[in-house]
Amino acid sequence: MGVTGQCLCGAVRFRTGATPTGASVCHCAMCRRQSGHLWASAQVPKPALEITGPVRWHDSSEAAQRGFCPTCGSFLFWHARAEDMISISLGALDAPTGITLEKHIFTADKGDYYTISDSLPQKE
């Protein structure tokens, strides 16, 4: 099952024929700062992702980079340089996605202003 998606203004679009895996909600400080709260994503093989439009890449650490639309600022991609997989924003996907969240990650770094109230597995 492939998916399609786009940024808020439509300048950046993406699609993949691969089935996204590992759908998770990230609670790390960097994702919270960039997204304004939480970031939900799933992974696909990087070679299977087709991106059109002007993505800007930010080196958020030595190990990873984040892709966003330079026009509207939508945070769309996260990529660990040492991996062949790339994470895509679940919030940017066109419906229906057919994806179900699997877990919460970096929960030890979550904000103090909310609680995680579902029964999904949590990884510190």
TrEMBL record:
It holds the Pfam family GFA. One of its GO terms (molecular function) is metal ion binding. InterPro entries: CENP-V/GFA (IPR006913), Mss4-like_sf (IPR011057). It comes from the Bacteria. Keywords: Lyase, Metal-binding, Zinc. Residues 3-115 form the CENP-V/GFA domain. Belongs to the Gfa family. This is Aldehyde-activating protein. The lineage of its organism: Bacteria, Pseudomonadati, Pseudomonadota, Alphaproteobacteria, Rhodobacterales.
